[in-house]
Amino acid sequence: SARVSVARGAAFSGWPMPISALVITLRYNPSDRAEHAAVLAELARDPCVELGQPQGAQVPVVCETPTLEEGRQLFERLRRTEGVVNVDVLSIDFEDEPLESEPLTDRNEYR
Question: Model pTM?
Answer without folding.
Answer: 0.69
